[in-house]
Write a structure and sequence with these properties.
6% strand; two-stranded antiparallel ribbon; Cobalamin_biosynth_CobD/CbiB; mainly alpha; 11 helices; Cobalamin biosynthesis protein CobD; transmembrane helix; cobalamin biosynthesis; cell membrane
Amino acid sequence: MTGLLPAALLAALLDRLLGEPSRWHPLVGFGRWAQYLEQRLNRHNSILRGALAWALAVLPFTVLAYWLASWPVLGWVFAVLCLYVCLGGQSLTAHARPIAKALQRKNLPLAREWVGRIVSRDTRQLSEEGIAKATVESVLENGSDALFAALFWFLLLGAPGVVLYRLSNTLDAMWGYRTPRFLLFGRVAARMDDVLNYLPARLVALSYCLCGDAGSGWRSWRTQAAAWDSPNAGPVMAAGAGALQLQLGGAAVYHGESVTRPTLGLGAAPRAQDILRALQLVRRSLRVWLLLILLVWIFSHA
């Protein structure tokens, strides 16, 4: 455990300084492998085939990570690099900040193009408010998924833990849709992601409350999260919306269908500057996590 603590700190530093790899990103290669499996196995939209595809996509790489992490010295270096490529802190900023800048310049076409890269909803007709809302929701939820949950599973199980989590989360993003093609095939991927995110999501919701308006964040989490369709996105987004004193949720278009989602948070609808405030909330929460990791490491050697 003590070796994982400095590894986590170093990986977070690498993410902060370098951002995600611009070329040869392992998750891009994994995405191609997952796409190949889906095309070969998803012919009858069956849960069993979806479970087989999930196992073939995730388990070999998890076992490989366990083996590589067991090497003396090099195993620790591998663990650092493994967490580094699984973290998405700087990537989150790199994708969200240009949207805020485009909105500040009243360039809605560019803002719609950018937000379309990070959300699954239809962005072609979004207003300034709709773009800002979609971006803030993505920052809060993806901050939990791509940053804090990866740290959580790394600290708990090391390199194989973060590989298991990150690949499962990627499959949920690719297959976890309630569409005719993925309703059954993607069910195992969606449920595995729900299970793996259950504890991290609630720790993130607590972090958002502590690093923002705690009272509003807690009330929103307690009273609104259960109405959201995702058991993990609900607490994260409700707490984040309350902590920022913003109102999220409402109508959105997914796969050509208009969906009315429950309201989360309170206060005004998001604007361009609120995207930057959401990023600040995620960064403050990350600093709290890293400070706790540092303190545990120091006291474990005292």
